[in-house]
Every structure is written in C-alpha cells, then in structure tokens.
Amino acid sequence: MSVLAIALPADPTAGYPYVTSDDGEAVARSGVAAAELLPAAGRGVDVVAMVPASALSWHAVQLPRGINGRSARLRPTLVGLLEERLLDDPDDLHFALGPQAKDGERCWIAVCQRAWLRGHLEALEAAGRSVARIVPELDPQADPPVLWITGTPEHAELLLAGAPIPGGVQVLPAERGALDLLRAQMDEAARGSVRVTAEPAVAALAEQITGRSSLALGTAAERMLTANRSSWNLAQLEFTRSGAAWATRRLGTAASQLWHARQWRPLRWGLALLLATQLVGVNWHAQQMHTDLARMRTQINATLTQTFPDVRVVVDAPVQMAREVALLRQRAGALAPGDLESMLGALANLPGRTQTPSALSYTTGQLSLKEAPLAAAQLAQAQDEMKARGYQLSQDSQNLVLRAGAAP
C-alpha cells in the first residue's frame, strides 16, 4: 500500500511537510504544502500523521489492574496518574498508551495538546486527506537508541530516543555541552549503542558535536517513513479511527508492511521456500502416481496380450478381456452368467420362494419373474446370496428381477 506521511507543524497556519512512498520504505516524493495542495490520498493510500518530537511529552507509569486501551475509565485513570507531572490543564491534553501496554505493567504514555491535534486532523479531513494513523516522530522504546542531528546550522537540534535515554525521548539544542550532560546520565554500554544520523545540512556541525567523522546521513523524509513503520498509534480515545473503511485500510497497511518491510524479509523468504517445497512435493507425488498408473496399465495390457495372443491392439484391456472370455465360453459350449439357463438355475433354490411364477420375461443379462413379492427379510437374504453369485436382485410390487453383472 502507498503511504502519504504528513508532519504536523507546531504552527497550525504553516505548511505541512510530507513524504510519499510506494512501499513504505523508499522515498518517492517529499516537500511542504498547504493541506489542500498535498498529494492526493485516493484508494489504496495510507495517510499517516506524524507528531513532531517537540510536540510530545513522555511519561512512564504503572497501569492499575483492569485498565487497558479499551477501558471506559482509561482517560480519568491516566489523568489521575499524571496529574502531578503535567504543567497544563488535563482537559487540554490528549493521552495515548504505548502499543504493548497491559494492565498492571509499566508502560509509556504520550501526551500532546488536544486542540492542536484536533485542528490539524480536521483541516486534513476537510482537504480530503483523512488520517488513518497518528504516529510519534520518535519511539521511546527504539532499539537500538537513536540520535538525530537535524535542522540548519543556525537552528540545529538533537533528537534522541530509546530505552537508555533519560525520559525516553529528548529534544535538545545542538550543543556539545547538552550532549555531554545527557551522556553523563547513561552507562558506557548505552552510550556505545546509540545510532547517530545527521541531516546533510548539519553534517559538519554533527561531527563537531559528536566528535565522530563520517557520520551516517539521513533526511527528514526518511525519518518520517521510519516513524510510519512504528507500532505506535496515537489515534486513541476521542481520536480513535473506527468503521469498516478504516479497518480495511489498516488491514491493507499491515499487509503492505508484511510484503515490503525489511524486518519481515526473512518471513517472506521462509514462506516462499515453504510454498516452493510444497509445489515440488506435490509435483513429485503426482509424477509418482502417473508412473505407477502407467506401470499398472502396462501390466494389464501385457496380461491381455499374453493370455490372448490374437489380440494385437489394446484399446481397453478389461473390456477386451471380457469379450475374449465370452468368446471362449461360447466356443466351449459353456453357459454365461447372463444366459437364461444360468439365471433360472440361480433362482431355482432361492430361499423364501414358494410360488411358481405366472410369467417370465428375459432379455440378455436380465430375467423378470411375475410372482408374489418376498418379505423384506427374505428379500435381503436373497439379495446377499445373489450378490455372492454375481447377480443383482430387486423386486417391485409384481415382479422379481435378476440382473447379471453385480460385483460379488
């Protein structure tokens, strides 16, 4: 599924930085535009709003038992847990639980301005860019932890996120002293695990601040796509996206990530290998069945030609063999099971028959006797005996009918 990621600016009147991607991995197009001038968001486009790191505050709390993302008392519970930490009126704030939040466990809570978020979502909705998900720019559970140096040389910032980072996420001025102060609160292993990336405009400044050379370079557009792949979704409580269309879009997003995302590549290869193995196995089994069937057919044909050397061309071995046996029987003067004499002999000692038939009718392989019907138990016994001799016995209200050729 294609992606349109839109960063929500601090100033509601400013333009929206955006990035488009055909697969959620590579940048197709990026820029800044007013809401109504953003790229079209038609069918098959996942529209994602990104909340900048500077617009969010993060709080680690212990959820009470019985409280989770679906609880009716979620908002008042979060207000109670965070009331002493908040500088603004809780009524003015929006709260969102982390993706792995469970009752009775510690989790992260993201907080931002409620009216500011609602204003952006309404503006995008009015412009025909309905937002399906809301993601944070940085993830406090990023592993490995990340450090981005962004902006311009005159207005550069440090963006840090990850478990070892105090507070989960930090936005600091791009100064060596600020970075050293933060590093002092981390152990040596945590400091060494931080992945550092600089935007091209501040690459030289980043090398001075970090004391490293040849830093990895990345753009704000790439950072937006990374945020799009986050498991976070801030669209909770009053901003929850619901309805069949939204559910279909979310399913499409998940399928697209499964199909394109790098982290799912081993799974894709595994599924492809499993499918290929199954196809090879099925083809091999079919080939074996075909070989076995051909071998059995050859053996049957050989039996026919060896038993009846006069048969030169084999078309249908069982039918030809039955015909040859019938010819031999005729030449020997033997009766066939379907002959009248054979069928009358089979019925002669049939249990339960006490009357002489008033009439009979014979065609090749079928004999019909007009007589009183047999009782149900007698008929069943007679049918079993006739079946053992190679006949099929049935009756209607007036006739007893015997047919040759039933399977013994």
Describe the protein in words.
This protein folds into 3 domains: 2-265, Nucleotidyltransferase, domain 5; 270-331; 340-404, Gyrase A, domain 2 (2-Layer Sandwich), CATH 3.30.1360. The protein contains 11 helices and 17 strands. The protein has helices at 74-82, 114-126, 176-184, 188-193, 203-210, 220-228, 244-260, 265-307, 317-332, 340-348, 376-388, and strands at residues 2-7, 16-21, 29-33, 45-51, 57-62, 93-97, 106-113, 133-136, 146-152, 155-161, 169-173, 195-198, 216-217, 359-363, 366-370, 391-395, 399-404. The two termini are 64 Å apart.
Features of this protein?
Nucleotidyltransferase, domain 5; Gyrase A, domain 2; 37% helix; 408 residues; alpha+beta; five-stranded mixed β-sheet
List the helices and strands and how they pair.
Blueprint lengths: L1 E6 L8 E6 L7 E5 L11 E7 L5 E6 L11 H9 L10 E5 L8 E8 H13 L6 E4 L9 E7 L2 E7 L7 E5 L2 H9 L3 H6 L1 E4 L4 H8 L5 E2 L2 H9 L15 H17 L4 H43 L9 H16 L7 H9 L10 E5 L2 E5 L5 H13 L2 E5 L3 E6 L4
Parallel strand pairs: 1-4, 4-8, 9-12, 12-13
Antiparallel strand pairs: 1-2, 2-3, 5-7, 6-7, 9-10, 10-11, 14-15, 15-17, 16-17
